[in-house]
Amino acid sequence: MQVLLVASEVFPYSRTGGLADVMAALPEALVRLGLDVTVLSPWWQSLNGTPREVWRPSVARGGRLMPGDLRVGQIDEAGVKYLFLGTPEFDRPGLYAEDDVERFSRWGRQVLPTLSSMGLTFDLIHGHDWGAGLILAHARQLGLKSVYTVHNLQYQGRWNIQDGMAWSGLPESAREGVEFFGDINLMKAGLVFSDHVTTVSPTYAHEITTPEYGERLEGVLQERQAQGALSGILNGLDLERWNPATDPDIHRMTSLSGKAANIAALRHEFSLDSAPILSAVTRLVSQKGIDLLVEALHEVTQDWNVVVLGSGDPLLEAALTGWAQHPRVRYVSGMNEALAHRLYAGSDAFAMPSRFEPCGLSQMIAMRYGTLPVVRETGGLVDSVPPEVGFRFAGATAADLTRALRTARASFENIHDWKARTQRGMVLDFSWEASARQYLDVYERVLG
């Protein structure tokens, strides 16, 4: 089976979050199941690594493109072919920007004609999140089978319908499948035109069919559910990248051996006192509920040292910067891969007070590194954090989070309970094999 996976980012070539991590691990897991897998992503100017250029048009195409405006580069890694399609819109520093709907629309309309010009064909196209949605609309026009995965329904790729239809290259007959309250919606395109929709945990698959979590697309999702074309498949974890026994950024850990050394190193790095360490590695956005943690810090710091790594909302950044003057609070702005590893290994507990969480990988990493998650009961957090390991709470309030952290602190004082929870968490199986087999089942159903 020849499968093309399409996404806006893929680790280690481009990354802003969990989508890139999935696009690094899932393709390799599918290859191990015997599939022929190609991953396609934009050729960002800031792409890590230099792809080998394998195709460039010699003539103008579509009445607009001049020679050299399109180029395709390739990197082969672990049995997976990574293709990067370059268009002028992506030839500038950074990744996402305010004109992304236009950029991904113009890029998306070039994908299938470019692959066809290269002589590349696939049995199935698997698009991921809104950046790939338009491609599945074009695939439907060509009679190609497709699967669409929602990683986060909140980010949809919307713009006014007049501009959007012009950029998309879609026929007017496809308008109903992409129009959304007067806008074009690239997420809706993927939901409507794919043969099957998946999302990244079973609980989130249910949640997004409700008004509370459906982001005004719950009607479309209810229809796909009624068709038997909506599934929830829990993401796996890259067990080689996140292996405490071989991780070069930490003191190596086998079972609980080495955990104390990592805690001591983190305590020294941030000049923390003897209280247990609670950390968070996160985007500072409303979804992640870090404002609840900030609101609760007056009480939380009575029991915990708190270290937060992340960036995003300027108001949250400012609040955390102010709190960093407190002897038990530390805040590091931005993304720092090595520090993230040290936080997972050197913390006692890990906070994820998310308002919603499609899947989440941080809680899986934390447990694998002997750190107990404190999580809200939503989405993939429900599906991956057993109550006999982590500490779960229902309400999206600072008071609920505070109560859960008090329970966690009481467990911490009971050395036998804490150790048992930690050991159970470290041996949970979050490998990609089971998830990849579920995707393969979906592919086979779609292909008949």
Automatic annotation (TrEMBL):
Origin superkingdom: Bacteria
Reactions performed catalytically: [(1->4)-alpha-D-glucosyl](n) + ADP-alpha-D-glucose = [(1->4)-alpha-D-glucosyl](n+1) + ADP + H(+)
EC number(s) on file: 2.4.1.21
Record has NADP as a keyword: no
Any single Pfam family the record assigns to this protein: Glyco_trans_1_4
Metabolic or biological pathway: Glycan biosynthesis; glycogen biosynthesis
Residues bound to ADP-alpha-D-glucose: 15
EC class name: transferase
Keywords in alphabetical order: Glycogen biosynthesis, Glycosyltransferase, Transferase
Gene Ontology molecular-function annotations: alpha-1,4-glucan glucosyltransferase (ADP-glucose donor) activity; alpha-1,4-glucan glucosyltransferase (UDP-glucose donor) activity
One record GO biological process: glycogen biosynthetic process
Starch synthase catalytic domain ranges (all copies): 2-223
Recorded family membership: Belongs to the glycosyltransferase 1 family. Bacterial/plant glycogen synthase subfamily.
PANTHER family the record matches: ALPHA AMYLASE DOMAIN-CONTAINING PROTEIN (PTHR45825:SF11), GRANULE-BOUND STARCH SYNTHASE 1, CHLOROPLASTIC/AMYLOPLASTIC (PTHR45825)
Role played: Synthesizes alpha-1,4-glucan chains using ADP-glucose.
Protein name: Glycogen synthase
Organism, as annotated: Deinococcus ruber
Name of the gene encoding the protein in the UniProt record: glgA
